[in-house]
């Protein structure tokens, strides 16, 4: 049953609200993904504080015009699914790109991250970068590695002293320790 004008206006308002709240938005062609794959993707994205929805292009374009976002969706550009990321900007995009790549189906059309428009290639490149948590771990590891070196050097002198004392004790007729 077709939607009434009132229902369409309500959908446009909901979409405009989602677009305003989202830290990043990615538009993708989802054609070819099975319902099972879409369901798994939606569940995964929900756990990451994101939402994946399919909407008519004309309604999505109207919602984009109601926001200050500098982009539009052509009503004839084929089926479009939208990823709204509310918490982390990049992690949900990584999940989406990985799902599309694993299925060898679908493609990224365009995206908006922090108010800037990115093309499909840029979105894919961003998805291939390490996550914020991985980058933080790398920084901590690089900051901690000199400390481990200092601990190793300082403990080596004590360890060498213990070996020397043990060798002197053995030389004087003491028993070797196991």
Automatic annotation (TrEMBL):
Gene Ontology cellular-component terms listed: ribonucleoprotein complex; ribosome
Keywords: Ribonucleoprotein, Ribosomal protein, RNA-binding, rRNA-binding
Single annotated GO MF: large ribosomal subunit rRNA binding
Highest rank taxon of the organism: Bacteria
Transmembrane domains' residue ranges: none
HAMAP family to which the protein is assigned, alphabetical: Ribosomal_uL10 (MF_00362)
Name of the protein in question: Large ribosomal subunit protein uL10
Subunit structure: Part of the ribosomal stalk of the 50S ribosomal subunit. The N-terminus interacts with L11 and the large rRNA to form the base of the stalk. The C-terminus forms an elongated spine to which L12 dimers bind in a sequential fashion forming a multimeric L10(L12)X complex.
One family name in Pfam for this protein: Ribosomal_L10
GO biological process, one term: translation
InterPro entries given in the database record: Ribosomal_uL10, Ribosomal_uL10-like_sf, Ribosomal_uL10_bac, Ribosomal_uL10_bac_type
Function: Forms part of the ribosomal stalk, playing a central role in the interaction of the ribosome with GTP-bound translation factors.
Entry similarity comment: Belongs to the universal ribosomal protein uL10 family.
